[in-house]
TrEMBL record:
Lineage: superkingdom: Bacteria
Domain HTH cro/C1-type: 42-96
Descriptive protein name: Helix-turn-helix domain-containing protein
Organism: Streptomyces macrolidinus
Gene3D superfamilies, A to Z: lambda repressor-like DNA-binding domains
Length: 104
């Protein structure tokens, strides 16, 4: 699904129009939402520590543009990268599976 199709489907959904089920779209949307949420958590923790993106990148052996992509939700990090980020942010990495009825 290209960007134009995704945007059209999203606008139709926002307008309350019926939108046919598309599992690939839903999967990609959920992945993008998770990437965005994770990026926000990294940003919040980094700024709470008073670190620049460059300083965080140096702490975890990365380059500043990589941190920027993560914070912007443009990438989904691997578990090993999440561990490095957590260590660099003086934080614990916790991964949970929450039953659908209990999601916040």
């Amino acid at each position: 699904m290209n960007h134009a199709e995704w945007k059209t489907r999203r606008h139709r959904k926002l307008l309350g129009e019926a939108v046919e089920g598309d599992f690939e779209y839903d999967r990609l949307y959920e992945e993008a939402e998770l990437a965005h949420d994770l990026g926000q958590m990294v940003y919040d923790r980094r700024t709470a520590l008073g670190l620049s993106q460059t300083e965080l990148a140096e702490r975890c052996g990365m380059k500043q543009p990589q941190i920027s992509r993560i914070e912007g939700g443009g990438t989904v990090p691997t578990i090993p990268l999440l561990r490095r980020l957590a260590r660099a942010l003086d934080a614990d990495l916790t991964i949970n599976l929450t039953p659908h009825g209990n999601a916040a």
